[in-house]
């Protein structure tokens, strides 16, 4: 992360070791449920949970089952392919809900209608993992300290995973549109102001299959505090990308600028007859840091992953509608969040 104030040269912002509420993790026999819409990140959460000695069981839903992104594992710890309602109603110490699940329920509509039965559990955590990355945490701290003054504008880029099913609307909520929730949540969490209006344009790669969702989305978002953000959600450039996922920000404030590249910590290697190049990420593990923080959050009331989640889900639906009609869309009260509340 780079931060510079007006009239100063850029410099590294020192990273402070992450501390999560609840302190050390020592409880044995932790039971975790994952409610997912065949979202590939759920696989990362599953493997992160299985690496923990204090987790005794993981129950995983996958909808639709024919498009699951989570492999069935031959282990006594995992119960796989369960009905999401069964997981919700069972005895679990923690339930992780992948955000895309809200757009995948039969009978609820693809416009993000509220899912009434997903309410009433204090140990349910929305899977917004970017909040737990060191660079994102330090950026939020820098903004809160006023290091660059008031935020006026943000230029952002986010490219998610490359699972094939994500380009199909029925399985991935309109291709790249589903990536809106993660970037929107990170920005709302850091800036501490809700999104009030979005304008989006979208398109498909010429090689995309017929009927697939867009793999390129450009989104303009306006925040309640007057800040604006331009977000590039293109997912059609894997050949030139050094890592499978990208999350970058440039924030412009009244007193300086700040840049963030969440996956910049990587090794590059090249060689061989054809001079092949390869990259490997060595920084924060996105899934492991989130799982650690989520489990810690169940042992204290000091952290809530679900703040203003309804508004970021609505931003994804509004972006899709904006691209369809070619006009900006104001956010209203289309969604109920995980606590059964409307914004």
From TrEMBL:
InterPro entries: Gfo/Idh/MocA_Oxidoreductases (IPR051450), GFO_IDH_MocA-like_dom (IPR055170). Gene3D superfamilies: Dihydrodipicolinate Reductase, domain 2 (3.30.360.10). It comes from the Bacteria. Residues 138-258 form the GFO/IDH/MocA-like oxidoreductase domain. Pfam families: GFO_IDH_MocA_C3. This is GFO/IDH/MocA-like oxidoreductase domain-containing protein. It comes from Paenibacillus antri. The lineage of its organism: Bacteria, Bacillati, Bacillota, Bacilli, Bacillales.
């Amino acid at each position: 992360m780079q931060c510079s104030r007006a009239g100063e040269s850029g410099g590294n912002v020192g990273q402070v070791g992450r501390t999560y509420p609840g302190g050390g993790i020592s409880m044995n026999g932790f039971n975790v449920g994952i409610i997912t819409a065949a979202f590939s990140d759920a696989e990362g959460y599953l493997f992160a949970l299985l690496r923990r000695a204090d987790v005794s069981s993981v129950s995983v839903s996958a909808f639709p089952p024919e498009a699951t992104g989570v492999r069935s594992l031959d282990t006594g710890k995992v119960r796989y392919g369960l009905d999401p309602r069964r997981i919700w109603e069972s005895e679990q110490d923690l339930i992780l809900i992948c955000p895309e699940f809200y757009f995948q329920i039969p009978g609820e509509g693809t416009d993000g209608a509220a899912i009434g039965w997903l309410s009433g559990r204090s140990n349910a955590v929305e899977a917004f993992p970017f909040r737990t990355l060191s660079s994102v945490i330090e950026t939020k701290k820098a903004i809160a300290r006023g290091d660059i003054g008031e935020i006026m504008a943000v230029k952002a880029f986010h490219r998610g995973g490359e699972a094939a099913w994500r380009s199909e609307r029925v399985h991935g909520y309109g291709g790249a549109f589903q990536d809106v929730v993660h970037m929107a949540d990170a920005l709302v969490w850091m800036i501490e102001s809700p999104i009030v209006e979005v304008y989006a344009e979208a398109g498909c790669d010429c090689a995309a299959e017929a009927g697939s969702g867009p793999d390129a989305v450009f989104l303009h978002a306006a925040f309640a505090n007057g800040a604006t953000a331009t977000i590039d959600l293109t997912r059609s450039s894997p050949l030139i990308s050094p890592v499978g996922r990208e999350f970058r920000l440039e924030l412009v404030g009244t007193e300086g600028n700040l840049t963030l590249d969440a996956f910049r910590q990587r090794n590059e290697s090249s060689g061989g007859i054809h001079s092949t190049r390869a990259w490997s990420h060595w920084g924060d593990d996105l899934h492991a840091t989130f799982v650690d923080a989520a489990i810690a959050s169940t042992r204290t009331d000091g952290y809530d992953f679900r703040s203003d989640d309804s508004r970021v889900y609505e931003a994804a639906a509004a972006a899709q509608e904006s691209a369809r009609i070619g006009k900006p869309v104001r956010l209203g009260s289309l969604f109920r969040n995980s606590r059964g509340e409307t914004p």
